[in-house]
Write a structure and sequence with these properties.
- The structure is a homodimer of 375-residue chains.
- By secondary structure, chain A is of the alpha+beta class.
- The first copy, chain A, folds into 3 domains: 3-86, Rossmann fold (3-Layer(aba) Sandwich); 115-177, Dna Ligase, domain 1, CATH 3.30.1490; 181-371, D-amino Acid Aminotransferase, Chain A, domain 1 (2-Layer Sandwich).
- Chain A is built from 12 helices and 17 strands.
- The first copy, chain A, has helices at 11-23, 51-58, 73-81, 90-97, 99-108, 122-132, 160-164, 225-238, 273-276, 281-289, 322-326, 357-371; strands spanning 3-7, 26-31, 42-45, 63-66, 116-119, 136-139, 150-153, 173-177, 181-191, 197-199, 203-208, 211-217, 243-252, 257-263, 303-310, 333-336, 346-354.
- In chain A, strands 9, 10, 11, 12, 13, 14, 15, 16 and 17 form a 9-stranded antiparallel beta sheet that branches. Chain A has a 4-stranded parallel beta sheet with strand order 3-2-1-4, with helices on both faces.
- In chain A, a hairpin with a 5-residue loop joins β9 (181-191) and β10.
- The longest helix of chain A has 15 residues, at 357-371.
- The termini of chain A are far apart.
- The interface between A and B is large, with 45 and 45 residues.
Chain lengths: 375, 375
């Protein structure tokens, strides 16, 4: 029996659960609260920043992995020092936790990045704006997700609150040029401790207000899928990543790819793989952290699209509208994360497989409208 | 929130669980014992022949359904009389529980059956052998599964033990001609209370020692798939079935189909649908009993094969051999039912999708050999 412990009880842990049931892998989830999305697999509820709780949890499984990237690496280093397995390990995870460290390391690896620099005062920001402006991107190196901790800035005054608490934010801000991209892509890759790699088809992602709204797999041509693959594999090897990793990429007008963000876990851009690929990213993550052979990443249809279901208000929990939504198309796949309703929250997603992305998106959005109770 | 209660904690309940997680349907399982295959979804452990326990369980869900067909229909009728929903209902389920009643009802519906008759003494059996012999099939109408309660008989002496306890067996035995079939098929269909039907591709099944060993979807041509579909749909409508139903069929040398057995639940012949069809039989069963629109039954590949993993001894729990087995082919899908090891027990299965059934079977059997620790 293989035992995997996941820290964090969000929808990623939730979606690992069916893969664990199929394979007969014992899944334990360390959730933050009683009513987590992954509550059905939760074996412990507590505080993952408390080393004693982490340690107690880690000792009940063969390997610890993550639903999110927020566990302090110092605690993970302690676990490793005790001989407990943590994948991805703290020496890898630090680059997903700290965007400034990530930029430095990827620059060392010679990978394509936006122009970037760290800054800790207004003058440095103004200088960067003078070169790369009129608008630049400023990020807090730690703690951001889904658009939080990221601002488009044309004046250092716009981040004066961050500068005021710069020590709390790690002592520096990350400045990046605002890449003139034509679209966003994501490249998923899995790596196991033996060093095997399994790379998925590059996908196109569509963000709305900093949140993933749609994914199209594979990314419509033309796309430099070879470059995307090489970038992701070089990062996975260079950062010694174990498990699933997503590389978010900008595609520029001339077709070049530039690295935006990294995630060292299953990722929203890979939800299509549950039905759309021979091995879902969730099964793949389990295989990878257990050092099992990795599964095929082949697509099971010419195209797969995923549409996120974002909360519309505090009442609509979506599943009550299945009757109407499922009538839109009998082949649509519905996923609920069983979260309490809240405007803007990632509540679930819909996946469609078929031949033509445009048709699939139309169906998925029709079903989403029914779920939102708008038709 | 939709709440479904499953009576029985076997592998079918286990495989309903991932579908419930995906859809955000609350699944409750009434298991017979602590360490059931579906233990992760078990909310009650007890005796399903105790009405009070059944009733208590049924009141916590919107609809009760089944992992097996052993719940006494009298108890289900009581639940219905209290206004609790049970699908399939007792008036349908009785035909899956009692093979003699099933033969009578299907004969009334004018469906193709082997020559059959009920008998309660040796003389009637001898007379049936004289007409349909030298060998006939004798079945106990109730309680048989996986080849138990079925004998090939050329002399009534061979069932003298059953005749001695005929009252305990329901007062009669079912006699059937031994159909000279060339292969066995299975036809899956789902029906919801609104009367919608969703019919899967007819599949070929290969039995070994009365236990399903392999399934090939779709059944290799030539096959009278229209007849298979009509038979299954007429039974589903005629018996007012709600949920998944499997019709096991014999195909004779001239291509005719004859009904062997019925199962009113997800069925071993449909396990391929987890990865191989747009809607798995487990998701379909949930949709059906909740009276949601039924999902597409389309195959996601030209062919899907499933190979059952039967226990080889009391030690090999299979998952310890994943490393070797997964190397056989990266696209194979492994399923463990997390049962304690025992020779001959259904412990799991392997599914392969692709173009050519013969190649897929070869891969699946190679992986099975690795799982059995024979290579």
């Amino acid at each position: 029996m293989h035992r995997v412990g996941v820290i964090g009880g969000g929808q990623l842990a939730r979606m690992i659960h069916p893969a664990a049931i199929a394979l007969g892998i014992e899944l334990k989830v360390f959730a933050e609260q009683e009513h987590s999305s992954a509550h059905q697999a939760a074996t412990k509820i507590g505080d993952y920043t408390d080393y004693r709780q982490l340690q107690e949890f880690a000792k009940t499984v063969d390997v610890v992995t993550f639903d999110h990237e927020h566990v302090p690496v110092a605690l993970l280093e302690q676990l490793e020092a005790e001989g407990l397995k943590v994948y991805p390990g703290p020496k890898s995870l630090i680059f997903a936790q700290n965007k400034a460290l990530m930029r430095r390391r990827l620059a060392e690896l010679g990978l394509p990045l936006p122009a970037w620099q760290t800054a800790s005062d207004a003058a440095a920001i103004e200088a960067f704006i003078a070169i790369h402006g009129p608008e630049i991107i400023v990020k807090t190196p730690v703690g951001g997700y889904d658009g939080k901790g990221v601002r488009v800035v044309s004046d250092s005054q716009q981040v004066s609150d961050w500068l005021d608490q710069i020590e709390k934010l790690g002592g520096e801000l990350l400045l990046e040029e605002k890449v003139p991209f034509v679209r966003e892509l994501a490249q998923l890759v899995a790596r196991n401790p033996s060093g095997d790699l399994a790379t998925y088809e590059v996908v196109q992602t569509v963000q709305k207000n900093g949140v993933c709204a749609e994914v199209i797999a594979p990314a419509p041509k033309p796309v430099d899928s070879i470059a995307a693959r090489i970038i992701a594999e070089e990062i996975a090897v260079g950062l010694n990543v174990v498990g699933m990793m997503a590389v978010e990429l900008f595609e520029t007008a001339d077709g070049h790819l530039v690295i935006n963000e990294l995630a060292m876990r299953p990722h929203n851009s890979g939800h299509y793989s549950i039905e759309g690929a021979a091995t879902s990213q969730f099964e793949q993550h389990l295989r990878a952290v257990l050092d099992l052979p990795l599964g095929s990443t082949e697509l099971l249809a010419p195209a797969a699209v995923m549409v996120n279901l974002l909360g519309v208000d505090d009442r609509n929990t979506f599943t009550e509208h299945y009757n109407k939504a499922m009538r839109v198309d009998a082949a649509l796949k519905f996923h609920s994360y069983e979260k309490s309703a809240r405007g803007g929250r990632k509540m679930g997603h819909i996946t469609a497989l078929g031949d033509h992305p445009a048709e699939l998106l139309k169906k998925a959005h029709s079903a989403a409208a029914a779920i939102y109770n708008q038709i």
